[in-house]
Specification:
alpha/beta, Nucleotidyltransferase, domain 5
């Protein structure tokens, strides 16, 4: 699964046939059916440029997508949230984060060994203790459309709820870039032996990501500097348009 994870991170448009061929080219003895079964376990598919961990086939409330052509000009104007998986010895953990789209600042994050909605709700509550966004955007996954999650958002009537349209592969682009950075700069460099080790190591990395890691798309400032207003962000509209066309160009 580790090798599949890396292939999928590099080539999110690959389906099971091409992932199978890539594994075979690298010396793995594996067939298409096993790759397909593992992809189902991992919750990934080529239709989306991300692990579709929160796929939801049940009836649920759907809110309109509010970010089309929206100019994002300040912190806490738009928060986005998403889930990715983290490999731990003989197991998987699930990482959820809320990202401020203007500054790329990780407002809050939570690690869980299950996909139940509770850890996403706890993460949202922690974020709301720090600030209130104008818009909260998510996919239509079961965690983010659960009654508990939606009611937590509704408890702050000033928040506008936005949801990605099904199959809209670019709606959560900034969080996709975050996951790529987390995987290549942290997860793939370590072999977590326990959930505790994963949590401690991720905590160090995510703090560095917020407070020390320079971002080209932030004019080489850190997310914390932009989020808390200690530095001014000057991004040309053309630069943002280029970034939106390339999920990994300006991470």
């Amino acid at each position: 699964m580790d090798k599949m994870d890396k292939i999928y991170t590099d080539f999110p448009y690959y389906g099971s046939p091409r992932i199978t061929k890539e594994l075979q080219r690298n010396g793995e003895i594996i067939n298409h059916k096993r790759v397909e079964r593992l992809m189902n376990i991992m919750g990934i598919e080529a239709v989306y440029p991300k692990p579709n961990l929160s796929k939801n086939d049940k009836p649920h409330p759907v809110y309109p997508y509010l970010l089309k052509k929206l100019e994002i000009t300040k912190p806490n104007q738009v928060w986005g949230t998403d889930i990715t998986y983290i490999k731990v010895k003989n197991d998987w953990l699930y990482l959820v984060a809320i990202l401020d789209w203007y500054s790329r600042y990780i407002v809050s994050w939570e690690l869980s060994d299950t996909m139940e909605a509770g850890f996403c709700v706890n993460n949202l509550q922690n974020a709301l203790h720090q600030a209130i966004p104008v818009i909260h955007n998510s996919d239509q996954g079961s965690q983010f459309t659960s009654d508990e999650y939606i009611n937590t958002l509704k408890s702050k009537p000033e928040i506008l709820i936005s949801m990605d349209g099904r199959g809209r592969c670019m709606d959560n682009i900034f969080t996709e870039r975050l996951w790529r950075s987390v995987k290549y700069e942290e997860v793939y460099l370590h072999d977590y032996q326990s959930p505790r080790e994963a949590r401690q190591s991720l905590a160090r990395y995510l703090q560095t990501y917020n407070e020390k890691r320079l971002h080209q798309s932030l004019d080489y400032n850190t997310p914390a500097e932009i989020y808390f207003g200690t530095k001014t962000l000057l991004i040309k509209k053309q630069k943002e348009e280029i970034a939106l066309k390339s999920p990994i160009l300006l991470s």
